[in-house]
Amino acid sequence: MTRTRLAAALAAVLLSGTAGGAAEQAAVPAADDPALSQECRVPGAQLYTVAQLGAVKAALAENRPLRILAIGGSAAPGASASYPAKLEAALEHALPRVDVVIDHRGLPGEIASGAAERLRTMVAEAEPDLVVWQVGTHDAIARVDVDAFASALTEAVGWMRSHGIDVVLVDPIYTASMAADVDYNRIVEAVRSVATQQGVPLVRRYEALQYLSRRSDKGEGHMLGRQFRLNDLGLRCMAEHVALTIATSLTRTEAPKEPKAAPAQPPLTEPQRAPG
């Protein structure tokens, strides 16, 4: 699907007022999509799973700025610091004439060990329409219990959705050194499972980086820097992949799937957000 066709499809959906659909496998042949840079093109089935983004759609329909909280990764100076600008540029390319406001915050530590609590504070402060969450890499490296991780992630995603906030999950980074590691791959699968159960879009970063690494003579060094951090090209590709996942999700028109209930959590601080 070309950028022009994607924009036209998005406009038609917004005009119709039809809600987006439940999580489903990508059907767009993204490997040939000019919305992605040549260096970043990955087959759609290996790039994303799409789902309803009701809060994003409402922001666009109301012609107001789209507020995004991007969490995970590093917010410290260095290559990672350029990610918000790359994501903003990619989104404004994928969603023409949309004003995007991005708040990027690092979320150190494992989700299963309390980082999800800090996430709730960040969300209450930023009041976003959408949270883009790079999740799982810290937990996988730390060898956390996969069931505890999945439970904490399910709870956090369910809490955000119950407050009318859309969520896009980005699964862990691919590296050849961990490709055969059973525990690492169980965390990757847990992120995918939670995305499906909760009905939220998923950027399949692990598969995308694996695909791109195999295309390059440099292997994973083409995209990956030190200490499980993406280099400049890796960050640009991830930003483009996130933007395309969001834009493609907005064109889906099937009936939404109800997410599985999350345990009761403290209410969002004032002003209160309406449930989605």
From TrEMBL:
UniProt GO molecular function: phosphatidylcholine lysophospholipase activity
UniProt entry keywords in alphabetical sequence: Signal
Species of the source: Methylobacterium radiotolerans (strain ATCC 27329 / DSM 1819 / JCM 2831 / NBRC 15690 / NCIMB 10815 / 0-1)
Signal peptide extent: 1-21
Keyword Signal attributed: yes
UniProt keyword RNA-binding, yes or no: no
Protein name (record): Uncharacterized protein
Region of interest called Disordered, as start-end residue ranges on this chain: 250-276
Pfam families named in the record: NonGDSL (PF25182)
